[in-house]
Design brief:
This protein is mostly beta strands. Helices cover 0% and strands 57% of the residues.
């Protein structure tokens, strides 16, 4: 796991967010059929497609308008 994606419960809180292929960020954990898919890379591809790579090495192509459920780490205030 990459160190820059690790967050602490002391400094961050986790919130459920609705994202699309275009708005997904590194560090988001996407829910795919009850399984967490931790995003480490999101690369643009031709044809309104984005390639997402997970912490475990899986890749998937997502259209930029595809709605996704995710959990995002947000800094505590």
């Amino acid at each position: 796991m990459r160190e820059d994606l690790v967050t602490s419960n002391k400094t961050h809180r986790y919130v459920a967010v609705r994202v699309t292929g275009k708005t997904v960020r590194r560090g988001d954990v996407i829910d795919l059929d009850g399984r967490g898919f931790g995003v480490v890379d999101a690369l643009d591809a031709p044809g309104n497609v984005r390639w997402l790579r997970s912490r475990t090495g899986e890749t998937m192509a997502v259209h930029t308008t595809t709605p996704l459920s995710a959990v995002r780490a947000v800094e505590r205030r």
